[in-house]
Write a structure and sequence with these properties.
Elements lengths: L5 H17 L3 H17 L3 H23 L11 H24 L2 H17 L3 H18 L2 H17 L3 H17 L3 H17 L3 H17 L4
Helix pairs in contact: 1-2, 1-3, 2-3, 3-4, 3-5, 4-5, 5-6, 6-7, 7-8, 8-9, 9-10
Length: 226
């Protein structure tokens, strides 16, 4: 501010916002991220503007998740405050998405689609969540980003469960399992086995359910995860 560096001030405000988000000080975080947005728009800095929109989305997303932690409920059954917070997150991600499309930034589009999928899932809009996660999946494959691809499969599996499409969920969870083994991520592999066990229980294929729950158990024991 002293040297009149507006872009520098914008970036510093954004960093402050992200740090405050991690500290759980969401309202202060929004103020700082909004300053990042305002200055970026004033300076005609499209990249900064896109980043600020994404960051504000993240603050509302984190706040929504934080508010809903106390309520152990299925996605979609949310108190008004939580719903409004997640809807705001969604709006900022949408604005970010249209801007990064304009900028032709595919990687940033992938991130926006993933987060839009997650917020729509929490809001109980499972068909919308699926559409966004499919877009996320396509971009992850484009970049050969195996970790993002794995997350997309997992999220697609979760959303299909709530639409009662258990067989489709099972296929997505199997892809999650396959990728987690490729990535040598045992904790995620265990989680995929757990999801498959539950899905086969819903499909009333109990033999297979037992098979996957046993695999989950073995990895949990290996990891010493009580």
């Amino acid at each position: 501010r002293t040297i009149g560096d507006r872009i520098g001030e914008a970036k510093a405000s954004g960093n402050l916002g992200n740090t405050l988000k991690i500290l759980g000080q969401f309202d202060e975080a929004v103020v700082c991220c909004q300053r990042h947005l305002d200055i970026s728009q004033e300076q005609g800095d499209k990249v900064g503007e896109a980043r600020a929109l994404y960051n504000i989305g993240n603050v509302y997303h984190a706040k929504g998740k934080h508010l809903s932690w106390n309520i152990a409920q299925d996605p979609g059954y949310l108190p008004q405050e939580v719903k409004e917070t997640l809807q705001k997150a969604s709006e900022y991600y949408e604005r970010n998405l249209s801007l990064v499309k304009e900028l032709g930034d595919r990687a940033a589009q992938g991130r926006a689609y993933g987060n839009l999928g997650n917020t729509q899932y929490l809001l109980g809009n499972f068909s919308e969540a699926i559409a966004f996660h499919k877009e996320r999946l396509a971009i992850a494959k484009e970049f050969g980003d195996k970790a993002a691809e794995r997350r997309a499969y997992s999220n697609l599996g979760n959303a299909h469960i709530f639409l009662g499409r258990f067989d489709i969920s099972a296929e997505y969870y199997k892809k999650t399992l396959q990728l987690s083994r490729q990535l040598k991520d045992q904790a995620v592999e265990a989680q995929a086995c757990y999801s498959l066990g539950n899905t086969y229980t819903l499909l009333q294929d109990y033999e297979r359910a037992i098979e996957y729950h046993l695999k989950h158990l073995v990895i949990a024991q290996e990891l010493g995860d009580r």
